[in-house]
Design a protein that fits this description.
Helix content: 40-55%
Largest sheet: 6 strands, parallel
Order of helices and strands: HEHEHEHHEEEHEHEH
Strand order of the largest sheet: 2-1-3-4-8-7
Distance between the termini: 41 Å
CATH superfamily: Thiamin diphosphate (ThDP)-binding fold, Pyr/PP domains
Strand content: 15-25%
Number of domains: 1
CATH architecture: 3-Layer(aba) Sandwich
Number of strands: 8
Structural class: alpha/beta
CATH topology: Rossmann fold
């Protein structure tokens, strides 16, 4: 399956959730499918989307938080799996787009991709709920169980690499504007205060 195809299956279930998205193909395709301002797109901070998502999940325990990661970003911060498993944030759903390449820099192969088992790494870190999904049918079948699971939850989306994929971010805003759009969206959606009177 292609990344966009997986996201098209997932998007209708997003509804009352918020998300953090890793840079690159994950962010580009999630934006293309959802145009979601309930999502923070972590451009310029490769590897730290998972840490951001965990902090968000812990601070908003009654709100489902989706971590839409990529294999390259996950590998830059594998220690985040240990912290996620330890914190037991039951509202955090960690999805990994696994295309076995760094897609947005020309498809450079991931190191050791032939032998790496991300689900095995997550289980060893302490995740009790794990999935490896290879088709849109599998995503559709597993998604209700993934979203209902209690405790650390980790699902790998086995997708095709797409050699002709463009590296340009598809969204219409980034940087400070992204910060404020996401924060204001959370304020409206959840009835909380994100920014103080001085705007931070």
């Amino acid at each position: 399956m292609k990344t966009r195809e997986a996201f098209e299956v997932m998007a209708p279930k997003f509804q009352n959730s918020v998300a953090v998205c890793a840079l690159g193909v994950a962010a580009n395709e999630w934006w293309a499918v959802t145009r979601s301002e309930e999502t923070f797109y972590t451009h310029g901070s490769m590897g730290f989307a998972a840490s951001f998502a965990l902090g968000l999940a812990l601070s908003l325990p009654n709100t489902p938080v989706w971590m839409i990661n990529a294999d390259g970003s996950l590998c830059m911060n594998l220690g985040s799996l240990l912290t996620e498993a330890a914190q037991q944030a039951s509202n955090l759903k960690h999805f990994v787009v696994d295309n076995r390449v760094y897609q947005t820099v020309g498809g450079t192969p991931m190191v050791n991709h032939q032998n790496t088992d991300y689900v095995g790494l997550a289980r060893a870190a302490g995740f009790k709920n794990t999935w490896s999904l290879t088709s849109t049918d599998e995503v559709a079948q597993a998604l209700p169980e993934i979203l209902a699971a209690h405790g650390p939850t980790f699902a790998v989306l086995q997708v095709e690499s797409e050699p002709a994929y463009g590296a340009k971010y598809a969204g219409t805003y980034e940087g400070s504007e992204m910060k404020y759009r996401f924060g204001r969206t959370l304020e409206r959606k959840l009835g909380i205060t994100v920014f103080g009177p001085q705007g931070y």
